[in-house]
Amino acid sequence: MNEIPPLQKTLVVIKPDGVRRGLVGEIISRFEKRGLKIVGMKMIRVQRDMAEKHYEAHKGKEFYIGLIEFITSGPVVAMVVEGVNAVRVVRKIVGSTNPEEAAPGTIRGDFAHTLPHGGKNLIHASGNEEEAEKEIELWFSPDEIHSYTRVDEREVI
Ligand code: IDP
Ligand code: MG
Fold first, then answer.
1. Which runs of E-coded beta strand occur in the chain?
2. Residues with Cβ within 6 A of ligand 1?
3. Which CATH number fits domain 7-146: 1.10.3720.10, 1.10.540.10, 3.30.70.141, 3.30.750.24?
4. Distance in angstroms (rounded) separating the CA atoms of residues 58 and 63
5. What's the burial of 41, exposed, middle or buried (CB within 10 Å: 0-12/13-18/19+)?
6. Backbone region of residue 39 per phi and psi (left: phi > 0; alpha: psi in -120 to 50; beta: other values)
7. Structure letter (DSSP) for residue 79
8. 156 C-alpha to ligand 1 centroid (Å)
9. Whose CA is nearest to atom 1 of ligand 1?
10. Quick one: average pLDDT of 100-115?
11. Which residues are catalytic?
12. Which residues make beta-bridge pairs with 125?
């Protein structure tokens, strides 16, 4: 029997523009169809202090204030996504930060074409393993992260 490779968890957030544009189902299904497992999910309105913690690394940049305004401007859908090399695979599904550069077939490359002031690019995904660990801890409590078996697991891993 093949050994299951080590799994990673990563944070995905459908930003307020994705929710307002009715793209939640479309975006979630892209991860599901790739065989990635959603192990946590909730809709929340991000408070300012949480937004500032999440985007701490960008403090001082010219787009920072607009970004905080944007991410707190409406509900978001936050997910913990699990899979083999999930951090890297999810970033590939999401596409480049600026939708203008994002390849067709990626979420940003299919549903946006520019990066407006304020950073509307539909979705956030952790940039690396260290960020993923920190962000999952910020966004989810341990009892909000679940463990279950998908019926197709033996086919996709
Ligand atoms: P990422 O979301 O692809 O990891 P980061 O560089 O971590 O990109 O930036 C975080 C978020 O800040 C972006 O997703 C985007 O919403 C916003 N942002 C980044 N660079 C710019 C910019 O040059 N103009 C406007 N918003 C930006
Ligand atoms: Mg980032």
1. 7-14, 37-44, 76-84, 123-125
2. 58, 63, 67, 97, 115, 119, 121, 124, 127
3. 3.30.70.141
4. 8
5. middle
6. alpha
7. E
8. 31
9. 97
10. 98
11. 124
12. 12
Q: Structure tokens of 57?
A: 């690394």
DSSP 119-131: ---SEEE-SSHHH
pLDDT-derived band of residue 25, with 50, 70 and 90 as boundaries? very high
pLDDT > 90? residue 108: yes
Instruction: Report how far residue 34's alpha carbon sits from residue 90's, in angstroms, rounded to the nearest whole number.
Output: 10
Task: Report domain extents, the chain.
Answer: 7-146
Look at residues 92, 77, 99 and name the one whose alpha carbon lies nearest to residue 24. 77
What residues sit around ligand 2, an ion, with C-beta below 5 angstroms?
A: 127
Among residues 76, 85, 79, 97, the alpha carbon closest in space to that of 32 is found at: 79
